[in-house]
Amino acid sequence: MSELPRPDAATATAETVKNLLLAHDAFSRWLGVEVAEVGPGYARLTLAVRPEMLNGFGALHGGVTFAAADTAFGLACNTHGRQAVGLSATIDYLEAGRPGDRLTVEAREESLKHKIGVYQVRVSNQHGAVLALFKGTAYRTSQEIPL
């Protein structure tokens, strides 16, 4: 009988951080965020666009798109086990989300230094259309996340 592969320490840390952060994040629960995958410097989330997330024109509210991207950014920048906080974030809205869309929000680490991390987040719908591109810069504190 062969053993199942064991996750490496970095992946295990990322999973533990994900569980800790989401356990205390009521807003992300309200958004309906589901974490599909997490790893060192990486997070992929999904969520469904619900009627209460729409703006007055029937399109996905930009604040919801930003919040979903910010959640992925927050997860990705904390996956190394050291508390990180956002310094700045920008977003480009490329296409409107629609009712019933299933969004994928994918954050990738572009640069990681001792004190600063830079992340790109892509928000796309179920058809692969890119709805938004988000860039976040995080400050990495010296505080270890209790694992």
From TrEMBL:
Name of this protein: Acyl-CoA thioesterase
Coiled-coil regions listed: none
Pfam families given in the database record: 4HBT
Gene3D superfamilies: Hotdog Thioesterase
Species of the source: Hymenobacter caeli
Occurrences of domain Thioesterase (ranges): 57-131
Matching InterPro entries: Acyl-CoA_thioesterase_PaaI, HotDog_dom_sf, PaaD, PAAI_dom, Thioestr_dom
EC number: 3.1.2.-
Keywords: Hydrolase
GO molecular function: hydrolase activity
